[in-house]
């Protein structure tokens, strides 16, 4: 059997062999590790420290620092800010970023100014995917005022931020965003988007009363509303000829919406309807439909599907009808 010293030498040799691999492979290794373990790799050797510093995925999540504990939070904030500033200060200049995620509660104005500097940094680094989950815990507002420059990227996920809809409309009409997710945000009672670049759009719990979408290359659309919002929604998804996936959850839409709109999506393959309680009839003859999923659409009384489906899923109350599906 090997002694402890011999085992240590053997493990060290293995680490040294791995360290000689190209940085791109070592970066791939880091992507498979939990965030804390990936950060710890920096102490293994000078090579691994360099690999960590140039790792193009940067995640700042306050919950990994135990900041969800109110008792410990006060002492953790400065530690979190220090870690983030050091991580960014060591990132190589003129190196692109694959992803930047920031999950944080802002307790004071200084925190907001730090966040603004971080966002400016990752935008200068041409970040491809930007994921911001921010809450404000001071002043009158609980929403972070998002700088509109963040929209000049490929993929955007926004949760709980305050947005200026008019500025977003103007910017999205001329920027290359391909994937956009907006959830639990303020200032979006009316949402309009005109974009040739966007491929995937998700809108969730924004208390929308009017939605208009003109996106000729849109492939996937998901709309989510809370049942507490009783205002009927006007949903116009125009010039979306390439739409393949449509998901509506809690949407206040009526049967005539489907009759007037489904024919506008000739490439639609997957339709998911959940908690659409105003829907009473559903009729479709779209020949490309492969999957229909109905969940808790409890007022649905008539269902006619004039196309041979691959998958049909129904859950909720026992329906008062027998679905008519073409074979």
Automatic annotation (TrEMBL):
One of the Pfam families matching this protein, by short name: F-box
Origin: domain of life: Eukaryota
InterPro entries: F-box-like_dom_sf, F-box_dom, F-box_SCFL_complex_component, LRR_dom_sf
Parts of the chain that traverse the membrane: none
Sequence ranges assigned to domain F-box in this UniProt record: 15-63
Record-linked PANTHER family: F-BOX DOMAIN-CONTAINING PROTEIN, OS11G0201299 PROTEIN
Name listed for the protein in its UniProt record: F-box domain
